[in-house]
Amino acid sequence: MIQTIAATGFDPMVIVMWVALGLIMWFFMIRPNKKRQQEIQNFRNSITVGTKVVTAGGIHAEVRSIDELNNILVLEIDKGVTIRVDRNSVYATAQQDQSK
Q1: What angle do CA 64, 68, 74 make, to 5 degrees?
Q2: Are residues 97 and 80 in the same domain?
Q3: Each residue of 28-77: pLDDT tens digit?
C-alpha cells in the first residue's frame, strides 16, 4: 500500500474520509433541516378557520377564511381589520396569553 501511494501520489483512504465526512454532514445538518421543513409544511396544511397564527413578519392574527386554490389566508389582526397573506408566510400558532 505504501509503495502504491509513493508511486501514484494518491491515497485511497482519502476517498473513504470524504465519504465519511459527507455522511456526517448529511446526518447532522441536512436530515434535521428536512425534518423541520416537513413539520412546518404539515402545520401549514393543517391550518383551519379560527386558528390563531403568527406570520413570518411577526403579525399575530386569527384565520378568517382560506382560499385553497390560490393558497391565500385572510387573517383578522383586529376587529374589522383583515389582511390577505400567502399560506407559506405563516410561521407558527400564536401562544395563548397566560396573563388573563
Answers
A1: 25
A2: yes
A3: 888 888 888 898 888 888 899 999 999 989 999 999 999 989 999 999 99
CA neighbours closer than 13 Å in the CB half-sphere of residue 78: 1
Task: Indicate the SS3 state at residue 96.
Answer: coil
Helices (H) and strands (E) in the chain, counts: 3, 5
The answer, as to whether pTM is greater than 0.70, is: no
In a shared domain, residues 6 and 25 = yes
CA–CA separation, 59 and 65 (whole Å): 17
**Cell triple for 16:** 473513504
Cα 33 from Cα 11, distance rounded (Å)? 33
- Tally the domains of the chain: 2
For CA atoms 38, 39, 41, 42, the dihedral sign is positive
Element (H, E) at 21: helix 13-25
